[in-house]
Write a structure and sequence with these properties.
Layout (H helix, E strand, L loop, with lengths): L1 E5 L4 H5 L2 H10 L4 E6 L4 H5 L6 E4 L9 H17 L4 E4 L4 H10 L3 E5 L10 E3 L10 H12 L17 H11 L6 E5 L12 H14 L3 E6 L4 H10 L5 E5 L4 H8 L4 E5 L2 H8 L4 E6 L6 H4 L8 E6 L3 H16 L2
Parallel strand pairs: 1-2, 1-4, 2-3, 4-5, 5-6, 7-8, 7-10, 8-9, 10-11, 11-12
């Protein structure tokens, strides 16, 4: 069976779709798994051995003019028709994505029952994700039951492993003369994350780890975070900190962080990537149900995940910060 799985939003959202794709392949190795993704997730999707083909939705980013958007939609329809899909599972839908699949003539189209978009699907599943009765990736897994009621929802952890990841890490250690285990801080954030420590607070946390002199501290940045990297260099001038801007692609970065001792960040795409490849995480979430760890916990082993929700009240926020500072002292 040719099965299309659609998740065309940002990195963290796409990673929550990977367990579902993996299990659809495990359920029957003869299933051909076709992932429809945003351009930024193409490289990671191609690196997943359980994904057989990748279709890029070129209109999944910022809104475009109507004519351009229509043209991109028809391009997607052509791509979908070309691969002769038997069934699709759309993990997060909108009207354009739903209409594209309808026009492509996919016979069985599964998706959450979402507003206008649901009229274009053959199977609408009521999930009420806003109630957050389970994590995002667990809602995605539930949708696979519509296609295969007897599917086993247990998957291996870490879900994604690379045979050459150790080589990438060893090369990194040689380049920066690293002789200790690495604790990484990713101080930037994006996506749906709306809670984080400020740079003053991050500086205190980083200096606490530096004072222990047990680990090498690495600050990681995305390719578009050069200015943020420069600011942190000024703040931590003369400290033994490695400033690493990921310029070799998301897969190389995934291989690298899979060997880190700990990855400290807010709930953003890089946190989900770290959990995907088995790196222990210490993660900060907003104190709301929508953005909480209950909804956005990583797809990796829960024993390797430490979650903290940052309160809005200043007094409670300060108490939590002091608590995390103590936790880092005993890491």
């Amino acid at each position: 069976m040719n099965i299309l799985v659609v998740r065309t939003d940002k990195l963290g959202d796409f990673i929550t779709a990977l367990p579902a794709m993996y299990l659809l392949k495990q359920h029957n190795p003869q299933n051909r798994i076709i992932a429809c993704v945003a351009p930024l997730n193409k490289e990671l999707a191609l690196a997943c051995g359980f994904i057989d083909e990748v279709i890029v939705d070129d209109n999944s980013g910022t809104p475009r003019a109507f004519v351009a958007s229509l043209g991109h939609m028809w391009n997607l329809v052509k791509k979908l028709r070309h691969v002769e899909i038997d069934a699709s599972i759309t993990l997060f839908s909108n009207t354009r994505i739903a209409l594209s699949q309808f026009l492509a003539g996919i016979p069985m189209r599964i998706a959450p029952a979402t507003k206008i978009a649901q009229i274009f699907y053959t199977h609408k599943v009521k999930q009420r994700r806003s109630e957050v009765k389970m994590a995002e990736f667990e809602y995605n897994l539930e949708l696979t039951k519509t296609l295969f009621p007897d599917i086993n929802l247990e998957y291996k952890k870490p879900l994604l492993e690379f045979s050459d990841s150790k080589d990438v890490y060893v090369k990194f250690c040689k380049e920066f003369n690293i002789m200790k285990e690495v604790i990484a801080f990713h101080v930037g954030f994006g996506g749906s994350s709306d809670a984080n420590w400020n740079l003053d607070e991050y500086e205190i946390l980083i200096r606490e780890v530096l004072n222990q002199d047990k680990y090498r501290v690495v600050l990681t940045f995305g390719p578009d975070e050069v200015a943020l990297c420069e600011e942190m260099k000024i703040r931590l001038k003369n400290e033994k900190v490695i400033f690493y801007i990921s310029k070799e692609g998301i897969v190389n970065f995934a291989k690298l962080i899979s060997h880190f001792k700990l990855f400290v960040s807010t709930s953003t795409g890089t946190y989900h990537l770290a959990s995907l490849v088995g790196c222990p995480t210490l993660t900060f979430f907003a104190d709301t149900l929508f953005a909480s760890s209950k909804r956005w916990k990583g797809v990796g082993d829960e024993k390797l995940q430490k979650h903290f929700m940052i309160p809005h009240a200043e007094c409670e926020r300060n108490k939590l910060f002091d608590y995390i500072l103590e936790k880092l002292k005993t890491t």
